[in-house]
Each structure stands twice: as structure tokens, then as C-alpha cells.
């Protein structure tokens, strides 16, 4: 192989001498070599004085100079600067700061010893000496619940065109459902969840974030929104993620990204109605044909990894619309008395007194007696019967219409 290469170099030398007017590209085409190859060897021919057969030989790729070695004296000086400069700067200094003082202070700069010229070398010395700890990231896999027992949901958005609600099962990574709207509010989000539960059945838990369309305004101080009361009355436990921790609902977050990258951004739908059909088709592909790389799926589609999924209990025919009270028994909600002497809890206002205007009070929910106790410190100011309760079971359709009206009123407020 080397002999063939040498013959090509000789031919290049001869062609250059015989045809000095040829361009470099013409020479490269004639020799069937790259333009960079022609440039490199013509440069070597010009540098060879006098010309000899040695100039056609390959040159060694070994470094021309041995890398400079850091002697122990310089290494110790760098480590000492790390400690000394901490007192001067009032903080732990980095490699660049040490590099500056190494070249401008002390006798080492005039000693003739090799001093590092890059912060990278300083960093390596500090690292080898244990001054920079090695950060070890420990992966803690998410504990998977039983199939279809615990869902996650979140909103996604495609610009100003439409929004979509995605629901994913934590135990199997099955994409449970996707719903679209031009813009979701508390009422339409509740209706979308109700439709999903009617089709799929009732899970044990549903995890979501602190989106106001899910949990209501932050001023409610944890008083349940219409959606949360709806879930509790159906026997579904709301599992609310703490603010600023999207990593606690990774399956919903990832599904939003996947739906955008693999479906919606490739051929953006015209509107939310078109998006509903597009997502329906993709959901079927996602669950049946798309290889899923999660641990539980093992690079298989979710429905092939879990061919026998349990059947969830259906939505009951009748519902106790006041069942949510038990979940919040003895829960205290903080309020400030308004200028008209009232405090607002949910959709209703409760009169406390003009003498309490501007003061902070606590509203304790007593589920057994179905009253609110207005507290100031440890003192009970008065009791108020909880408004808006039904007191009897309702058919599911009647309850759904009632809770949707409450969600609509919440949006209006």
C-alpha cells in the first residue's frame, strides 16, 4: 500500500512540473485524490531542499516534541495556591485564578521550570490531588404501581393553535387518552377527564400538577377545586405534584414531548378538531406498534409488553356529591376577612363581621357536622353551615352537569 502511495506522489511531482498551469482541482481529478491531499504534498515538495527520494516517503505521525512534564515542585505550588488564595478571595478559587497567580507571583516564573499555560492542566492537577470531588449521580428508578391503577395527566400546547390533555398510566406507560381543545379551562378540563373515565374506567389515583385548571386559584389555599371534588366523589385520589417538581410526573411530561416531536410538529394539524383525529391515530400506533424503551416495556409497544391488562371499575350510576368532605375533614384553610366582613370559601361567601375586616382567620372544615368553624388563633369565632351541599345521592349525569356548572362559575370568578 505504501508503494502505491509513493507512486501517486511521484506522479503528482511529475505532473506539476510538466503542467504548471494546471489547477489544483485538475491535478486532484487526474490522480483521483482529494484536493487537501494535493495541497499537502505540493507543500512538502516545496519545503524539500534539495529534492530527493525521501520527500515521497510518508512522515511519522508521532509527536515532534514530548509533552512537558509537571515537576512535583510546580504541582505543590499549584495546590498551595489553591489554599492560600481562598483566604485572599474569601472563596474557593478556580483554575483560571490559580493560573494567573502562578505566572505572576513567586519565583517559579523565573526558575526555568515548565509552568502550565492552560486552565485545563490546572484543573487536572486539582482533580488528581482530590481537591475537586467526583460527582456521582445515583439513578433511582421510578417505582411502578400496578397496571392502570395510577395515572398522570398534563397539558400540552402547539403554539396558539390548540391545547391537548394527555393521560399516561404510570405502571405500564400506556397512553390512556388524549383530548384537545382550542383552549382548556376548568370546565372543559373537567369534562375531558369525565369522558376519559367513562370510557376507560376509574383508576385508584390520578397525578397532576398545580395548574389552576386542575386545582383552582392559589388563593383557595388548598380548598378543593371542582375537578378534585369530582374525582374524590368517584373514589379517585388526587395526587398533586409539589410546585416546581415536574420530574415527579415524568411519564406525562415525556408523553407531551413525544406527541410534539413524533406527531404534531411533523405535520401540524389545522385546528383542535383536526388534532383530535391525528392524536387518536397516533395513540393507536403508540400503544400497539411503537417500540417503547422504558424498563417495564423492554423496547416493546406497551400493549405487547402488557397483553392482559386489568379491567377498571366503571363509573357508578349514582354518586354521593358530598363524599369529598371526608377527605378534607379538620383541614384548615387560611383566609383574610374582606371589606364587607366576609370570607370566601369555594363559590360561597360567609359573613364573619365588620369588626374582623382585614384580619386573618382560619376556616376549619368539620365533615361530620358539615360546618365551617371560623377560627382566630385557637378561638372559635362562629360556625357556618357549609353551603352548596346536596345531602342525597345523584345520578351520574345529573352530578356531572352540576359539577360542570360549578367549574364554569369558578372560571367566571
pLDDT averaged residue by residue:
91
Helical fraction equals 25-40%
Total beta strand runs? 13
Report the uncertain regions: none
Number of helices: 14
Element order: H for helix, E for strand: HHHHHHEEEHEHHEHHHEHEEEEEEEH
Strand content: 15-25%
What is the spatial order of strands in the main beta sheet? Answer: 3-2-1-4-5
- Largest sheet, if any? 5 strands, mixed
Integer-rounded radius of gyration: 36 Å
Give the overall shape: elongated
Distance between the termini: 83 Å
Helix/strand/pairing category: alpha+beta
Descriptive overview:
By secondary structure, the protein is of the alpha+beta class. The chain has helices spanning 2-18, 24-31, 35-47, 72-89, 95-104, 119-128, 186-200, 212-215, 226-234, 250-264, 272-288, 302-305, 324-327, 396-412, and strands at 150-158, 162-169, 175-181, 205-208, 237-240, 318-319, 332-336, 342-345, 348-351, 360-366, 371-376, 379-385, 394-395. The N and C termini lie far apart (83 Å). The protein is elongated. The model has no long low-confidence stretch (mean pLDDT 91). Helix 4 (72-89) crosses helix 5, helix 5 (95-104) packs across helix 6 and helix 7 runs antiparallel to helix 14 (396-412). The protein is built from 14 helices and 13 strands.
